[in-house]
Structures are given as C-alpha cells and as structure tokens.
Amino acid sequence: MLFFVDTANLDHIREAQDLGILDGVTTNPSLMAKEGISGEKNILNHYKEICKIVGDGKDVSAEVIAVDFKGMVEEGQKLAALHENIVVKVPMIKEGIKAISYFTEQGIKTNCTLVFSAGQAILASKAGATYLSPFIGRVDDITWDGIGLIKEIYEIYDQIGSETAILAASIRNPLHIVQAAKAGADVVTCPLNAILGLLNHPLTDQGLQKFLEDHQKANA
Ligand code: G3P
Q1: Side-chain half-sphere of 80: how many Cα atoms within 13 Å?
Q2: pLDDT digits (tens, 9 = 90+) for 67-86
Q3: Is 106:125 a contact under the CB 8 Å cutoff?
Q4: HSE of 192 in the Cβ direction (CA atoms, 13 Å)?
Q5: CB-based burial of residue 101 (10 Å sphere; 0-12 exposed, 13-18 middle, 19+ buried)?
Q6: Residues with CB under 6 A from ligand 1
Q7: pTM here?
C-alpha cells in the first residue's frame, strides 16, 4: 500500500519525506488556501516546489478549478506540463468524467476526487482514472460508513478487473489508515499527524525506557 501525505504544507511534506516512507502527495484547493497560496503563478510554483521536495517518480495530485470540460482540459494540460510527477485531480461530475476520459487518451494521469459512492467509482474506472479518491472521513461525518465504502469499491474493482487504484482520502486518524489497509485500499493519503499517530504505543515507550534504564545500570 502506498503512503501519500494530504497537505500543501511544505514542512509537513519535508517531514514525511524525511521519514523515508513517502510515495506521493495530494492537495486540493482548500489545502492550498490554508497555506495562503493564491494566484495562478504562485499556485503553479508551489506545485513545482512540492515535486522538487519529493523527487522524481512520486505522484503529486494538483486539482483543477474549472468545472467545464474545456476549462478542465486547459488547466489540466498546464498542470501536467509542470512536472512529470503531476497527476491531474478532477472532480466527480459529468464534465469531470469527460475530462478524465480525455486525459486517459492523452496518457495524462488523473485522480478522480470527491467520490462518495460505488456507482461513481465504476464510472471513474470506466473513464480510465489512475486514482479514485473516496472521502472516508466525510462519509463518516454523516454517520455513514467510509471504510465500508472502500470495501465495496474494492470488491467491485476486483470483480471487474479495474486498473484504477483506490486512494482512501479524507483520512482523519491512524485507525482510518489501518482500516483502509484492511479494506483493500491501494493508497492512503493522510495528514502528517495521522501518519505520525501510527507510531504511538505506550508499551513501546515503557519498554524503551526500561531498556535504557537497565543498560545504564549495567554500565554505571
Ligand atoms: O484528500 C481529501 C481531503 O483533503 C479531504 O479531507 O478532512 O477535508 O475531509 P477532509
């Protein structure tokens, strides 16, 4: 399973990269705005900076703002030309499906975002999306079952032999990561604190403290 970090914060991306476990980055317009990145030039430069930090061969999702086919294609082509790591992120709407089909024909990687149902997942796969982003946290937010959705999509993709990778998104905590892995996600994209949360166990801390104390006693 691949690990992506879901942020536009360069320090968080660097920290995840330094751990040596980072396979890619996802961003969205809200995450870019959170970092105060605005204006086309600054946005494009920020994507280039992210690509530089993670190095070659790691996918970086950059989302289009346009919601019409022509606009999505123009924006997507501009984004894809920035760096070979760029994956064009497209919303799950009718025009988005048209754009994903177009990008697939052009050999441009895509990430279909804002996915909340198995039906949407089937359509995105048919259009040739490289990645599918079901938002599990937001599904949980409305007391539905985000992980259940990942399981359902996994089953369907297995059945139809889909080549689209399931990218579990809107992950809020370490348990989501473990559950997404069990449910068959190909990729998890997580805020840095959810990744770091995987480290935590009180028995590890207690055990390490005891090892160090015993070593000190024996070597006093
Ligand atoms: O990957 C999608 C993600 O950024 C949305 O997360 O927490 O805003 O639902 P959240």
Answers
A1: 19
A2: 999 999 999 999 999 999 99
A3: no
A4: 13
A5: middle
A6: 6, 26, 28, 31, 133, 135, 137-138, 169-170, 172, 189
A7: 0.97
